[in-house]
Amino acid sequence: MGNPEGERKYEEQRQGPVLRRRDQVQPGTTDQRLLDTEGDSEWVHTDPWRVMRIQSEFVEGFGALAELPSAISVFGSARTPRDTPEYEAGIRIGEALVAAGFAVITGGGPGAMEAANRGAREAGGVSVGLGIELPFEQGLNPHVDIGVNFRYFFVRKTMFVKYASGFVVLPGGLGTLDELFEALTLVQTGKVTRFPIVLFGSAYWSGLVDWLRDTVVAQGKASERDLLLFHVTDDVDEAVALVTKETSR
Question: What are the Cα distances from residue 33, in Å, to 7, 27, 48, 80, 128?
Answer without folding.
Answer: 20, 10, 15, 51, 41
